[in-house]
Amino acid sequence: MDFALTEEDEAFRDELRAWLDENLPEFNAAGEIGDENNPDRRTMLRRQAWQRRLHEGRWAAINWPKSWGGREATVSQNAIYAEEMAKAKTPGIYNTNGLWQIGPMILRWGTEDQQQHWLPGILDASEHWCQGFTEPEAGSDLGNLRTMAVRHGDVYVVTGRKIWISTAHLAKWGLFLVRTDPTSLERGAKHDGISALIVDMELPGIEVQVIRDITGGELFCEVTFDGARVPAEYLLGQENQGWQVAMGTLGHERVGTAGMSVSMRIELDNLIATTRHHNPAALEDPGLRERVARVWTQLELTRLLNARALSKILKGQPNWPEVPLAKLQWSYLSQTIAELGVDMLGPLGPLAKGGPDTVDKGHWAHNYVWQRFTSIGAGTTEVQKNIIADRAIKMPRR
Ligand SMILES: Cc1cc2nc3c(=O)[nH]c(=O)nc-3n(C[C@H](O)[C@H](O)[C@H](O)COP(=O)(O)OP(=O)(O)OC[C@H]3O[C@@H](n4cnc5c(N)ncnc54)[C@H](O)[C@@H]3O)c2cc1C
Description:
Order of helices and strands: HHHHHEEEEHEEEEHHHHHH
Number of helices: 12
Shape: globular
Largest sheet: 4 strands, mixed
Helix content: 40-55%
Bound molecules: flavin-adenine dinucleotide
Oligomer: single chain
Strand order of the largest sheet: 1-4-5-8
CATH topology of the largest domain: Butyryl-CoA Dehydrogenase, subunit A, domain 3
Distance between the termini: 37 Å
Number of strands: 8
Strand content: 5-15%
């Protein structure tokens, strides 16, 4: 494995660092954006402003074609980008779904008219997007989805229910997977009858209900379609070929764990610094010291795992089984660090935000519950283990 960067990669990294040095401190110094009392809304406004700044510097959509303001970044440049952003602790992105998943799919499958219609709003953060795949009976087994879209002239009439759809209440547009051929289920070819439909979230016949999560935040929603009439020209790709569109979308979701080991390392460093300040005795506790050392070692292992996946891709080999292993490492370590956070801070650890004695605005207590999502999102732990057992270890099926 060769860790050295090529000249182009070094130039890419240096340009990004210089741009961040010039833009990030000034952006951070400007402070909060908007004076609303709603913290979720304030966060989104800040992310919107940051994405606009990135877009102006051609750093928002690095994988998009140059003609669309992208950089056509290589796999190693994606890893560099993720690491540098994590090191610089940049704000989140307003349109993560749009930039990383849906935009590339519109570039790949969309007509010229569709690209002109939707891509500018994704790039400049003027329109927010959600991704509507999961249903109450179709999560890990996504092919089981049953939201129906029936063609009537120049519209699809959509009926059904989607759940856990992130930020649907803020989105102007959504990319939804719907069933256009109900016979495919009876034929036992469930993946064949699915289409990808772009939906205007303000259409009559769509109800969006926010679901409060265990942290008290309002991130995801239930979306109910009751005869919503979606223009047929909003179909992305061919009718009944939505599975191919979706797999491309999820493929993009699985790129970019490289920055995670850097973010988690920063989280561990922050935890040690905050413990030194608020509960220094914990740093002398042999049990806690051992847990810190174990996490540190596992983080280093994860960094090397990502490097090996990258090296394989660069050599044209399949990055297998490093990708599901890195996903497991990510969920295991995020949750382990979150638990360590609460334990290291002793009595201050569980204090939630808003109280007089909270540490780091309640971050550690919040993180303890929030990180549970990492064993569900981007493929559940059990399903990842099945994949490894089946395809990597080749364990016999029962
Ligand atoms: C924070 C968050 C944000 C999300 N945002 C979105 C979004 O924007 N859009 C969207 O479409 N969805 C979103 N989801 C939904 C997510 O994709 C699903 O939760 C995920 O696919 C799992 O599906 P499920 O919840 O139906 O669980 P299920 O698939 O019902 O799984 C339940 C349990 O059974 C286990 N299990 C399932 N199948 C097997 C098997 N074959 N073998 C062994 N064990 C199995 C699972 O591992 C899990 O523990 C989000 C979820 C979270 C937590």
